[in-house]
Structure formats: structure tokens, C-alpha cells
UniProtKB/TrEMBL annotation:
This is Anhydro-N-acetylmuramic acid kinase. It catalyses: 1,6-anhydro-N-acetyl-beta-muramate + ATP + H2O = N-acetyl-D-muramate 6-phosphate + ADP + H(+). Gene3D superfamilies: 3.30.420.40. One of its GO terms (molecular function) is kinase activity. The keyword Oxidoreductase does not apply. GO terms for biological process: 1,6-anhydro-N-acetyl-beta-muramic acid catabolic process; amino sugar metabolic process; peptidoglycan turnover. The keyword DNA damage does not apply. Its EC number is 2.7.1.170. PANTHER family: ANHYDRO-N-ACETYLMURAMIC ACID KINASE.
Amino acid sequence: MSSRLYRAVGLMSGTSMDGIDAALIETDGEGHIRFLDFASRPYDDAFRADLRAAVLKGAAAMERQMDDDLRAVSRRLTILHAEVAGTIAKGADVVGFHGHTIGHRPDRGWTWQIGDGALLAQLLRIEVVDDFRGPDVAAGGQGAPLLPAYHRALGSGLERPFGVLNLGGVGNLTWIGGGDEIVAFDTGPANALIDDWLHEQRGLSFDENGALASAGDVHEEVLQSMLDLPWFDQAPPKSLDRQDFGIEPVRALNAEDGAATLTAFTAETVRLALSHVSSRPQRLLVTGGGRHNPVLMRMITERTGIAAEPVEAAGWRGDSMEAEGFAWFAVRKLRGLPTSFPEISGPRQPVVGGTLHVPS
Ligand SMILES: Nc1ncnc2c1ncn2[C@@H]1O[C@H](COP(=O)(O)OP(=O)(O)OP(=O)(O)O)[C@@H](O)[C@H]1O
Ligand SMILES: CC(=O)N[C@H]1[C@@H]2OC[C@@H](O2)[C@@H](O)[C@@H]1O[C@H](C)C(=O)O
């Protein structure tokens, strides 16, 4: 018997703080996934600065504690999400709302996403599901990454083993072998340090098409010192806070060499990540904004020996993937199906994450 199909919107504000992505899909929360629409909107500089301040506060916090500034950012974030979602949500049954991660400390028993699901449900007049990560951490999981379950659903027809690499602010790898065996974990900062470097050196939010990196040289000794951390040897499950790594190691380099070295660092973290899987993937499908950076894609190919291909090569949509995933998770929540899994983020048992908000 086939399951009911839902029209679901997913909303993502990723760690790179570039803006909001919204996707509309038709799905049963299992193998039926039909893409319908996508919208995105970049943050303006003023709001990005407020979000950056919130992230610094969240990363330094010992516990989650809202203050007036954070409440104001959370409210503004929610209203911006309602505006973007409103452009594609007509007729939708449910909205999956990730919110914005301002701190991620599963070791301290919490992960922290701001954004007000109840307010979003009121603004859109549609049921909203938020807080997908918290219940996973409460069950002993990392709270991240979650998307690998969506990669598994999307990739049911692909030859195994294959890899999906998300190059967002933080990077994560999904490896899927025979019998749907899965290994998935955060790899390191993907674009976060490159973005921070460009912000500091040039007042820009990212290194468009790798222009600055392509004009510089990689300093291998600096690179090796950055890789010399026990975190890279640690077995999965594992996840990162955006602020776990910093740009200090390249501070003595010029702007071009710093960009080249940080770009090579991301490529090396992917090479090290592949040491945690039992066989080399036949394909490495790359999603997230980093796939638009040709210098990063070339370095990954050279340093891993596996051709980095954009996920579009498999017919998937790299710009909307995360938003689609949270739409799919929202439907799973409505159906009482797990949204996180012991073999991915490491909870003790499968967890039906998410909190449902019904407009009054
Ligand atoms: N043309 C481009 N050239 C270089 N880098 C690019 C380009 N387009 C996007 N990027 C990079 O991709 C980043 C955005 O990626 P993405 O939208 O996948 O991140 P995110 O969803 O915020 O992150 P996460 O997956 O960590 O939540 C930008 O900050 C930038 O570093
Ligand atoms: C805590 C948090 O927000 N983590 C994000 C972040 O961005 C990429 C990587 O780090 C991944 O672990 C996760 O997002 C994706 C969407 C995930 O959960 O699969």
C-alpha cells in the first residue's frame, strides 16, 4: 500500500551564514521524493553581522541561555524565514525549520539552534516542525550530521559504494556501501575558514571561484601543522561546531597564500575522512556551496585521487539539498518515522526528532 504524499517545505540557514534556502518537495518521507520549487535569499550585511555575533556568543557558552540580543536575532531570523518560505509554501502541508546553529556542544549535552517555530507557524498558517537535533543529542547522539539519511534515500539507485560530500560552512561525508551500510560524520571546516579569511583580509564573504586561492601557494608545513590534531583520527560518529577551528595558523601568510593553504586544508580533511571508510567510493558527489569553487574541487580531486563531481551529475540539486532534507524530515516526524539513526549521528536508538507547532 502506498503512503500518503505530502507537500513539504524545508528551510535551512547554514553555518556559512550566507542566507536562507527554502525547498518545496512532494514526499512520503521515504523513497518518494519529487522536487517542486526552490527559493533563497542572502542575508544583508547588517543581519549577517548580528548572526556572526550570536554564533560567537553561542560557541563560547557553557549552556544555552537566551538574552535580549539573541531573542531579537531569533525573531528577525524567523520573520526572514517566513518571507522566503512564503514565496513557495502555498498549499504546503508542513514546514521543516532547521533554524540557525549558534552553538553545537554534544559533549556538554546540548546543541543550540535559534528561530521560533511557534511564531513561524503563526506567520505562515502552516504546521511547522523544528528542533531536529536536540532530541538526538538527548539520546546520546551527536545531533549532526542528519542529512546522510536523506542522501541514503536519494541514492537508492546508485552503484555502491558512493560518497556524498557536503561542502558548507562545515563539511560532512556520507559513505554508502552494499546493503545500505552507512558511515557519516563531519570532516572539518569546509568553507568556514576560507570565508573568515576573506572577511578579514578583503572584507568579502567568500572567495568567489577560488580567485584569491588560485593566486597563492600552499604552505605545506603550515598545512601539516593544521592537520596534526587527534580529531582527524577519531572514529565516527563525530560532529563539529563552526568555531572549532580558526584561521590563526595562516595569520603570518599573505592573503593569497593564506587562501590557498586554507583551501588545501579543506581538501586534506576530505582525504583524511576517507581513511574512516572501509572501501574507496566509486564516486564522490559534492553538494553545498563549495562545489562552486573550482580550486577547492581540483584540490580535492588531486589530494584524494577520486574525481570530485557536483551532485548534479547524479541528477540531484546541490543548492537545495539541505532544505529538501529538512522538508523530508518534517514529513517523517508527522508520520512518526525516525529522523536520526545510531549508524549516523550515534543515538542509542533511532530517534523521532522534531517538535510540531500547529498554528492556533
Ligand atoms: N562561486 C563560489 N566560489 C567559491 N565559493 C563559493 C561559491 N559559491 C558558494 N561558495 C561557498 O559556499 C558557501 C555556502 O555554502 P552552503 O550554502 O552550502 O553553506 P551552508 O548551507 O551555510 O553550510 P552548512 O552545510 O555548513 O550548513 C559560501 O559561504 C562560500 O564559501
Ligand atoms: C550542528 C549543525 O548545525 N551542524 C551542521 C553543520 O553544517 C554541515 C555540518 O555542520 C553538519 O553536521 C550539519 O548540517 C547538515 C545539514 C546535517 O545535519 O547533515
